[in-house]
Amino acid sequence: MSEQTIALVTGANKGIGYEIAAGLGALGWRIGVGARDRQRRDTAVEKLCASGIDAFGVPLDVTDDASVAAAAALIADRAGGLDVLVNNAAITGGSPQIPTSLDPATVRNVVDTNVIGVIRVTNAMLPMLRGSASPRIVNMSSSVGSLSLQTTPGIDMGPVPTAYLASKTFLNAITIQYARELSGTGILINCGCPGFTATDLNGFRGVRTPRQGAAIAIRLATLPDDGPTGEFHDDAGAVPW
Predict the structure, then answer these.
(1) What's the pTM?
(2) Is the Cβ–Cβ distance between 203 and 94 less than 8 Å?
(3) CB neighbours (10 Å) of residue 164?
């Protein structure tokens, strides 16, 4: 492994993902900018490099096995390994998403990106992460996926698309299982909630900036070796599952 910390951020060409890449890059890390769209990916890499960050593009469609395998090979070749994985890529599936009229195909598409995509990328990158001295995995979730908050009287989660909400609950459950299996390996894996951030995912209706939304991922990516694993956090602390 390189002495320089290497991180891969998925969906890093814009919004929260870009700010996560920028924040980690500002620490002197080398950043793999994972994204499907070539033009947006190249633009993001150019912008990061212009600000003094050591960044390189990683063509990556998290829903495609071959694309993910190629991304892992590229990182191994370009960087020699991987220390930190931030699973940020996600879609909402559009709206409205009312349970009684929800198209099953919408659920399938959202879960393929937001959950199966995370599994696909994580498992492909794990061999390199196991070779790191301080490996970290951050799964970007949302408090709307918290079953505790969803069922607490007086808490209104707002008009959240059903498939998106369920995908984040699913992601939280998967993260817990990864933490159980990887316990004792040194790999810390946690979920982070960015808060209601203004991105194209919500039509820029959020009240937080992408940089503010990225802060939790940066904190979880830089946890000390005795830091938590299998937990769900936002800027204020632990979020109930």
Answers:
(1) 0.94
(2) no
(3) 25
**Tokens encoding 232:** 């769900």
Spatial neighbors of 211 by CB under 8 A, at least 6 apart, are 19, 22, 23
Please state, as a whole number, how many other Cβ atoms lie within 10 Å of the Cβ of residue 224: 8
CA atoms of 31 and 17, how far apart (whole Å): 11
Q: Which of these is catalytic: 10, 68, 137, 164?
A: 164
Can you list the alpha helix ranges (DSSP code H) found in the chain?
Answer: 15-25, 38-50, 65-79, 104-111, 117-129, 147-150, 162-181, 210-221
85 DSSP β-pair partners:
8, 137
| 178 in active site | no
Tell me the C-alpha distance between 83 and 101, whole Å.
43
Contact status, residue 89 vs residue 117, Cβ threshold 8 Å: yes
- Model pLDDT for residues 211-220, shown as the tens digit of each residue: 999 999 999 9
Tens digits of per-residue pLDDT, 15-62? 999 999 999 999 999 999 999 999 999 999 999 999 999 999 999 999
- For the chain, domains (ranges, CATH) are 6-238 (3.40.50.720)
DSSP state of 208: B
Amino acid at 153: P
Amino acid 22 reads A
